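anyone seen this seq b4? input:
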Amino acid sequence: MKAAEGPDETVVTTAAGAPTDTAAGVGTGAAVETIQREMTAFARRARASAGRMHPELSLVSYTLLGHLEESGGCRATDLAAHYALDKSTVSRQVAVLERTGLIERRIDPDDHRVQVLQLTEAGTRILAQVTESRKVAFRERLADWPAEDLERFAAYLVRYNTAPGAPATRTSDS
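predicted toks r here
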């Protein structure tokens, strides 16, 4: 990288001569590319580990179960809206979760025309097992990080996930 002084800021370029979208010499362009690449790797690892923790429970299924537990149950359309997913995607996931006995449909006591999805006992048990396995995996991976790094990382993730334009996909244990 080379730095060239401009009238108002230092412009840093890569070895190929491309600017790094910078002010005061900090390479934000490269940083954003690194963040994108590392978050993609994180998502791939999360999807792969979800399958290892429970072969029939994808990361999406785990997330939906978590929301059902947190909310006390809801309609499939509410799940689709909450996670900004297509209704057909949620429908397929719900069908798998019903077939495996992890959720069931119940009549809404407030509106008998509506069916609410709720966890079964098996769903609650599996969700708790997978959640605990995920917590153990995170603790092991982060075991040698100093407390201040963990707190900073946690704050950055919350900041990123609550930024304007971010879909509302957070659950307490996801």
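The longest strand covers residues 111-119. The chain has six helices and four strands. kinda curious what u guys think
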